[in-house]
Amino acid sequence: MTDAQKKHIDSPAEPSVRDSGPVEGVRGNREVPPSGTRSQESLDPEALRAERDQLFDRLQRLAAEFDNFRKRNAREQAAFAERANERLVKELIPILDDLGRALEAAAEHEEAKLEDGVRLVHRSLSELLTKQGLAEIETDGKFDPHVHEALLSQPSDEEEGSVIEVVQKGYKLGDRVLRPARVVVAEPAVREADQGRGSRGNREVPPAEDDH
Fold this sequence. Notes:
With 212 residues, this protein is α+β, with helices and mostly antiparallel strands. Helices cover 49% and strands 17% of the residues. Strands 3-6-7 form a three-stranded antiparallel sheet. A three-stranded mixed sheet has the order 4-8-5, with no helix packed on it. The chain has a two-stranded antiparallel sheet with strand order 1-2. The radius of gyration is 50 Å and the shape is elongated.
């Protein structure tokens, strides 16, 4: 074997590199954006402006729809309140007629008819308000600060804290208190023996007589 053949055998074989084309994501020393995305340089200003205009138009339409909904809701609420007032006023007309007849009886000085007319008006109005949910607050029993208003307290033989007099009636509409009942509340009565002891305690004592 010649020296040239030995040199060829001893030298390591260089690996063969196959050109596989450019590597995705790397172009020289610059990173290549993945496929399917747009780089900042490739964004079209005209497309951005068109997209902005579309979003602005959509926002304007939503604002207009909300404004129309708000106005329509306000009109419906006003119409509902008007119908409710109309129904109540319509039911009050017969009571107004009764009151007119009572005034006519008063002009003719017919006291019996006047009293009957006033009672009729009171009964009709009470029935109408009861039908609408108005209820008189009960005042029998203990004082209730949630529905009663104590104007004063007086000594009484009744149990302490009991309502002994109603100065003005109170009313509720459903569970809501429209006006509390104004009442007088009982407080413990002062016994005569206690009054006697109190008077003796406050009574002036005469001076002792001089024996001389």
